[in-house]
Amino acid sequence: MVVRYVAFNYGRRYVREVGVEIAFNLRQRLYWHLELMGPRFFSQFPTGDLMARAINDIALIRQLIGMGTRLLFVLGFSGIIAFIFMFYQSASLTLMLLPALPVFAIIGWILAKKIFNQSTLVQEGFSTLSAQVQENLNGIRTIQTHAQEDREIDRFEATSDAYARDYYKLMFLNSGLTSAMLIATGFTTLLVVGYGGFQVIEGAITLGTFTA
């Protein structure tokens, strides 16, 4: 237990440090690349879009490296070891779970695809919102001169509401994916308990094997 605790905490800290270092290097390279761009580039890509890529996109990459790598390693390694151990203890009980796995994989793939599309909309909304704020700040004197404050406030509220709706929908999809994982876990546990209990009653496996 002590070795596992030390290895787990050291590995988690190391992976997070790698993610932070990669994010730092990406932002440095992005900054120096932007320094080389000319007026045509900045007229084609608004400042809000560049800010969204420098902040949100790189933050997502850091989370992918930090959290995604750790989860992939832990869940993948644990799943393989658990499957081998279960198959060794009771092949029939293990094979009972296999038909449900493709169904869970398809549901997860569908939800992940929807999350990806919705995340793209959120990123675009953040880019639009940032660009609008930057434009208003740069042209605040012009807006005040032409008495367009109320119009710009209404336009900002509309953009902000659209961004909030997209973000809420993204959170809803993320919650749906988490709920689907919990349902899948509960369903597989129900299968193990039901069919495993039946095998114990029939004498196919022992109570100790079923508990393990």
Brief rundown of the structure:
The chain is mostly helical and 212 residues long. It has eight helices and no strands. It is 92% helix and 0% strand.
Describe the fold and architecture:
This protein has eight helices and no strands. The relative contact order is 0.09. The mean pLDDT is 78. The chain is mainly alpha-helical. It folds into two domains: 1-89, no CATH class; 90-212, ABC transporter transmembrane region fold. It has helices at residues 2-35, 39-44, 47-89, 91-97, 100-138, 140-145, 149-202, 207-211.
Provide keyphrases for this structure:
single chain, 212 residues, mainly alpha, ABC transporter transmembrane region fold, 2 domains, 92% helix, 0% strand, elongated
In sequence order, what are the helices and strands, one letter per element?
A: HHHHHHHH
CATH architecture of the largest domain: Up-down Bundle
Secondary structure tally, helices: 8
Mean pLDDT: 78
CATH class of the largest domain: Mainly Alpha
Strand content: under 5%
Radius of gyration: 26 Å
Proportion in helices: over 70%
The total of beta strands comes to 0
* Poorly predicted regions: none
For this structure, the CATH topology of the largest domain is: ABC transporter transmembrane region fold
Question: Mind sketching the topology for me?
Answer:
Blueprint: H1 2-35, H2 39-44, H3 47-89, H4 91-97, H5 100-138, H6 140-145, H7 149-202, H8 207-211
Helix pairs in contact: 1-3, 3-4, 3-5, 4-7, 5-7
